[in-house]
Amino acid sequence: MNDFQAIADRVEIEALRGEFTDAAMMRDRPRMAALFTPDGVLRMPNIPVELVGREEILAGGERLQAQWDFFVQNTHPGAIRIDGDTATGRAYMHELARTLDGRQGQNFAVYHDRYRRTEEGWRFAERVYEVRYLDTSPLAGGAPRAEQEAAWGAPAADERLERVAAALRANGFAAEILDDAAEARTRVKELIPEGSSVLTGASETLRLSGIDEDINAGGQYDAVRPRILSIDRATGADEIRSLASCPDFVVNSVAAVTETGALVLASGSGSQLPANAGGAARVVWIVGAQKVVPDLGAALRRIEEHVLPLENARCQAVYGMDSAVNRLLVLNAEPHPGRGTVLLLREAVGY
């Protein structure tokens, strides 16, 4: 072959197929959807799924990937036949997967592709996924524990934080990226007017940053937590619930924030969740960079595998008892724009 344009086209189409696998492995649904033409189609008859257009491909990818515990995809090059501004081809797949509900196995499949040259470069006009072999035997392996634990505590890169902030804003949250906890401490003082009633969550992020002390011992605010702690729990349960449910402000952290712009909180008693969910007039969440996860499935795993063991150790040391994840709150969006502000930190704080 001595047609340099044809060689360049083949290289770009092969890169397109590699980009698809990378987006799938990194659970980057917006990038995956952008690899298709605006009217592109993704068909998976064996599932069955048929997604038409980038919006459906994005939403469908989110639904599918939210079910994964883990997923590994290997792409092997197949044929490419170019005809001007269109082309056809095949890519051969080997995949291993386990879903959160326990389904698992491996398969070998073929992607039957149609490609189209666009102003953005070559894009998929259609991908049709044909399974040739399926083995649903239990998979003996999984992600290495030490590697996973290290990942749960590793700060996200700036590019990823920017992506999370954009997703949060699209979902109605205000989102700011700050350098560290010291900057967050200053920003919290700017966001909360003096004299406001403020409830702080039971959060290592707030304790380590000094924000908990600023609010509950600084004298600038009507601090709700010290008032709650002074009430007899046997006789004042109704008063405690009322105080905790409807303050002017809640300042808290989260167990995880997803790249799709959702916040996930975990609690043993659930006492702080109503105010976060909607009871408080305003909320400020301070979130360390290590809490970024791809999706809800990863958020739940982070809570069970990373957050709970650390919180359990803290509760044993302080209270002599175990912790538990008895309540979960998932905030997918904020229906009242401006109510909730997320301060994303570039450093890891808390757990």
User: For the largest beta sheet, what order do the strands appear in spatially?
Assistant: 2-1-6-5-4-3
- What fraction strand? 25-35%
Helix/strand order, N-terminal first: HHEEHEEEEHHEHEHHEHHEEEHEEHEE
Supply the number of helical segments: 12
Mean pLDDT: 91
By helix and strand content, what is the structural category?
alpha/beta
Quick one: overall form? elongated
**What is the rounded Rg?**
24 Å
Measured between the Cα atoms of the first and last residue, the distance is 57 Å
Number of DSSP E strands: 16
Helix content: 25-40%
Which residues sit in consecutive blocks of at least 5 with pLDDT less than 50? none
Note the main sheet.
6 strands, mixed
Written account of the structure:
37% of the residues lie in helices and 33% in strands. It has 351 residues and is an alpha/beta fold. The strands form three sheets. It has a six-stranded mixed β-sheet with strand order 2-1-6-5-4-3. A six-stranded parallel β-sheet has the order 7-16-13-10-8-9, with helices on both faces. Strand 3 and strand 4 form a beta hairpin. The model has no long low-confidence stretch (mean pLDDT 91).
